[in-house]
Amino acid sequence: MALLRLTRDWAAQAGRRLIAVTVDHQIRPEGAAWARWCEARCRSLGVTHLTRVWRGRKPATGLPAAAREARHGILAEAARQAGARVILLGHTADDVLESAWMRSQGLRTPAPREWSPSPIWPDGRDQFILRPLLGARREDLRLWLREIGETWIDDPGNDDLTSARIRARRAISQGATPQDISTPRPPGLPPFQEGRAGELTGAVSDFRGAGELAARVWLGAGLVCVGGAPKAPPRPALETILARIYSGKPIAVTLAGARLIAEAGTLILARETGDRRGGRGVDMPLRPGPTAIWDGRFEVIARAPGWCVGHLAGRARKLDSVSGEVLKSLSGGGRRAVPALLGPAGEVLCPTLQRTDAGEARSLIMRRLAAHCGAIQHESELGTWRNARLPPKSLPMRGMRPADEPS
According to DSSP H, which parts of 228-309 are helical? Predict the structure, then answer.
């Protein structure tokens, strides 16, 4: 409610459109009534309100994590339908302290960041989470709400001590003070360059000189972006691979859908097609006009009916001579995973190798990589990264901006 009241006033001054979304997880019987209360409160404040429901069976274990992932997915879908790129969440300084306490108890709980990309891929692509209240304590916000005559709903689940989050909340309220509440800053732009096959290439020396945290984040981000996977590999796996890379011995491993090759001081990450005997994944039919996300790595558009998109693996011989020569000039990494448009008459076209009237394939790899590593600090910067294969020459500073930009 504090976030809603503050954002409503800011949006009115800045000329931005504000939409409030309530997610009924269908976990508590009061959920539908809470959503109706939120809708009525938003109506009285002149704010557009949407109610979305998490339907289907709920897991018997890991419910909080599943609910969080479902909630982010629902918010990403609502934002995309509204044409919005920023989702504001009401986390406070107490959430930072609670996350730190949980980490002190051996739990892998990241600290909430003020600005970060949506954790949902690919549905949350080009969307960002903004948490403007991280510097405020929860009780201070409640005091302010009381002063202005505002009310709110307390979820009874906040008293459930079987939840690690609630135990952390109780410990903080009783005076526990975690030693390390710092939130590491994202390391910034990784030292990668993207090739036409969607592969990333970098120097091992750049990783070694960047420090342990930056190297681990860069490697995890590179693997997940090249592989098109929804989540980065776990920290222990990344630390093991980095140690092997730094040993100087040649290495070739597969992780998160990507093939990692390190030799002669060079690191190459390329999409693993999954079958070295010549097989390939399932082809995806395309409808003319709408943008489709293929393989978690490319935005693909077909301009005529009857076309599909799939991996080039096993089809290179059908390319025309120009595309074939371009393909030969590429490094071996990722050639087999180049996006191929497959026509109704058996045509095989690769729009990343040569322009074609049949359609387009725009890489998401550098755009996603930049967002993951903190190189995109404002929604307006996304245009700078569209179709980027090399890092843009200049990056604007971050910050929420008014009026002439999307909601």
Answer: 235-246
